[in-house]
User: What shape does this take?
Amino acid sequence: MSDVVLETKSLVKHFPISQGIVLKTKVGAVRAVDGVDIQLRRGETLGVVGESGCGKSTLAKLLVGLEKPTSGSIMVRGQDMVRLKGAELRKARRNIQMVLQDPYTSLNPRMTVGDIIGEPFEIHPEVVPKKGRQRAIQDLLDTVGLNPDHINRYPHQFSGGQRQRIGIARALALKPEIIVCDEPVSALDVSIQAQVINLLERLQDEFGLSYIFIAHDLSVVRHISDRVAVMYLGRIVEHGYDREIYEQPTHPYTQALLSAVPVPDPRLRGHRDQIVLEGDVPSPANPPSGCRFRTRCWKAQDICAQQDPALQVRDRSPHPSACHFAEIRDVVHGR
Amino acid sequence: MDVLPGVDPRAPLLEVNDLHVEFRTRDGVAKAVNGANFWLSPGETLAILGESGCGKSVTAQAIMGILDSPPGFITKGEVRYRGLDLLTLSEAQRRKVRANKIAMIFQDALSALNPVYSVGFQLGELFRMHRGMSRADAKKRSVELLDLVKIPAARSRINDYPHQFSGGMRQRVMIAMALALDPEVLIADEPTTALDVTVQAQIMGLLADLQRERNMGLILITHDMGVVADVADRISVMYAGKVVEEAPVYDIYAKPAHPYTRALLESIPRLDMKGQQLNVIRGLPPALTDVPKGCAFNPRCRFAKDPCRSDPPPPAYAVAPHRTARCHFFREVLGE
Assistant: This one.
């Protein structure tokens, strides 16, 4: 397919656990991302959801090149980002940018807004000639709905929502095709959250951007995403179009996750299919054998401990699901 | 425990009347709470809903008597527990109310628990200080409490330190601590905000069970409209230090009477439907050092007209029985 802008193949990131101070020996590994295949098409938003520790932020860092994968490939426009070096890598990186979660810590308090948004131009001077930079920065401020005259202000003079707009302007500076958003609205109040989500949607239409949208808030992900991937312990357990995931989930973890999200409608109280999971997520340093979800799963049988279920279309799952007993169950709507 | 003088068992469980709290800072006086009113009955769940800076946590701190003072000062109002105004009590008397009658749990359990004592010690301390129990008895009660909040293998975990528990388990420890002395009122300040949704469901379920068993009044402070819809009986919506709307939960979600409540409900994406563009509340919440004249929400309100922009601010109009809204044009908001 020609409209695929980003594709990962068996992407793996293990963080070594070492022991000893002088003679460090590797005693194990945290399998933060453990074989992830995703495809992102032009102009679409791929939502990645999962609970803390499932590896979604590590995935984001791998995609933008902030971490080096242990194995696997990241293809952007036919080039493998993992194997590129030097000037070629730098050039390729322009194409994939990131918006971070916390607009309070991700902006340098000693730099003016103009310097923050203009910094990408220092690293990639070929994008905008020096003369045109001031103009370009002001255009960016205007694009994200900030006053272009505020170019010399500092981050602390802006509110949380405005700071996130600055972060978005910085990500747009190099005219990327792909933006990885790692929890871009979770630090914001609800009334401000809507402003930023609408901005992201408008920019997508305007510039034909593709988003990887990582969040733990399933309602926000549904709102903005075309397709959704659900992660658990470093793996994608289910993926499909938003309607498939939210209306016809087939993996037990997706079902439990969705059923746990409160819906802002008291009339549904007591009428929703609620699955309360027991216990906590196992340690990614020592994931269970076979299916990683089996320790908390109510459907688990012997086969789940022996055979790792592949992420594939199954008899009772029209979209890919990594469960031997995948079956549609609508948990979001009232009975 | 000896009975507090002035407590009338027939009086309402908890009443907050015209509470004002201000913070005196270098940048001026920040009016965090500007006349908050609400009440709570046994067995009932009241949700206080609002965004950061609306004064919801400060209200809770004032009720508990744990407001940092200075810079915070309660300048006016009453907090009545069974008719007794807590704000007039001495610190020694307030200590008897805290934990015994009114207890609180916090958002971040890791910073609310003491990292250098085992959870068993911290739980046992309550029984030793307030009930004069021996160490052995206190430990026994502590194990029972950890069982009550469904911490697996409570007997062996009693000597663990807070950092050895997961986020959800720590929150359970804090709930155990709050319930140790059988309080009649529990204030939960964003109890699940820091937790994942599946753990949030566990904790909210636990709180609901415990509340039912004990017929406890619960004040749930949160910004999450979903959690509120799931558990609350009544809702008080706060904005810039005032309760702008107060209503039973079904009414408020069906037909909000205050423009702020309505705008909030329209601005959240929903899990069970794929929406269109989200409605946005333009602008920002006001700085508490400089609250707008008249209705504090008027600069962001699409219903605002001239009377909204001048003092006095709108009173709490009775919209229906047990239902108030501080908006001159609540009929329009309801009926548009």
In short: The first helix of chain A runs from residue 56 to 64. The mean pLDDT of chain A is 90.
